[in-house]
Structure formats: structure tokens, C-alpha cells
Carbohydrate ABC transporter permease (Paenibacillus thailandensis), 311 residues
Amino acid sequence: MANSASVSKTSKFSSRDSTLGDKIFDILNYTFLTCLMIVTLYPFINTLAVSLNAASDSIKGGIYLWPREFSMENYKFVFKEATILNATLISVFRTVIGTVITVFCSAMVAYTISRQEYVLRKFVTIAFIVTMYINGGLIPNYLLIRDLGLINNFWVYIWPGIIGVFNLIVIRSFIEQLPESVIESARIDGAGEFRTFVNIVLPLCLPVLATVALFTAVSQWNSWFDVFLYNSSNVDLSTLQYELQKILQNSNTTNSVESALANSNSGSSITVTPLSIRATMTIVASVPMIIVYPFLQKYFVKGLTVGGVKG
């Protein structure tokens, strides 16, 4: 009886200690995650507050989570440009078309080099990986694009990056984890390689394809340097990022700040400043990706981790 009572008392104390330890861990864990969330969200919220604040007031500083003098003048200034609407449509077309074609072609090549029976798969893989470290240079690349007839052409946004080597390796690693029996059963049923790829492999690769699609879409949406190199003379093919970049470059930082300070002392106000334009541009460029990300987020971690685990 005494032994059973002591055992019961010991288990009660150990349970109580374990519960207390769990509570302390939960408190520390939630505190850390809350701090991490604040550190992550604050720059975006601060940028949003600056973009919604009057420009003449923003240069005084002291804006943190909420605009001090609410104003939409920054957004009116950015969107008053006649080329913004067309540039936005080009960016959307570029992102959608480029993402679909790049993901499909990268997955098709990844499936090819993942097949054990393909005797050149190691050579082709190495050839692709070499391009990640060795580049022909800006001038040879421009001459190649020119000779291909892609100058002042929409497809210059698509064809040069149709195969992403990093995406290719990620998809190949994922495909190699798929059960070989599934592919063999499709072949037994008479399916060819392309039909096996489209009907069997692609549906099973949805998590990694969503991950690669997110990477590709962000890259396509944010890209502006290729517009500057190849399509800067054609306004109809300009993208949103390039137009925003031109707006920022056209604003004289020194003169704007000095003018804002002078106007603030005289009691008048200035419409925009480089600081307010930069904040507004950041929000305009980020919002579409922020809207798309939640739909792909559930595949994101799985797509990156499953391919890296050997079965």
C-alpha cells in the first residue's frame, strides 16, 4: 500500500511538472512566434502607411503603423500615367503565359532526365547545371536575342527562360520519389511516354509544380531589366515594373526633398516625394503576389521537402 501510494504521488508530481514545463514552453513558443510575426509584418505595414500618408508629411518621419495624414495622392500620381494600364496587362500576360509554359517545359525535361533508361540523363543534367555557373555575358546574350528576332517582341519575356535549371532539379528530385510501379502500370496499359507524363506524372507532381509556379510567377512579375534591354523602345510591350522604375528615376530626389522642406516651412504642401513614390511602388508591385500566394501556400512546403527525402 505504501509503495503504491508513493508511486501514485510520484506520478502525480511528474505529471504536474510535465504540465508546467509544457505551459512554459508554450508561452515561450508563442512569444517567439509573435515577435517573429511582428518583425516580418512591420516593414510591409510601415510601407503601406507611408504610401497612404501625405508626401509632405512623410518626409518628417515618425510614421510607423498608421498614416498620420491620410492621402491617396501617391497612388493617383502613379496611376495617372497613361502607360500604366497597358503595362499592367502586359505584366499579367507575361506572368501567366510565362509561368504555364516554363513549368510545363521544365517538368517535361525533368521527367526525361529522371528516367533510368535514358542513357544520356547524366550528361544532360550536368550540361544544365553548368549553365548555373557559366554565363555567356550580357553582350553575347543580347546579340543572340537580336539574331533570334526577339528584339521588340513579347516572346523575349518567355523563350530565354523557358527552362529554369533550379526548377528542373527540384521537379526531377520530386519525380524520382514517385512509385515506379505507377509508371510501369501505365506502360502496361499501353500509354506512351507523353501520355504517361501528362496523365500520370503531372497530377502526382501537383505540390512541386505549384511551388515552382510560385517561384516562376514572382520572377516574371518582378522582372524589368529584360524590358530595359530588349523592349525599352516599344511602349506597348512595357511592363508594370519597368514603368514604375521609370517613374522613380524621373523623380529628382534632391530637388524633391528640398522643395518639400521649403513648402513645409511656408505652410504649403507637395504632392509626392521619392520616398512616397518608392513606398507606393512597393505596395503596387507586391499586392498581386500576396493575393496569389495563399492559394499555393499549402503546396509550398510539401513541394520543397518531399523531393528531398529518399523513400
In short: The chain has two domains: 2-58, 82-250. The chain has a mean pLDDT of 81.
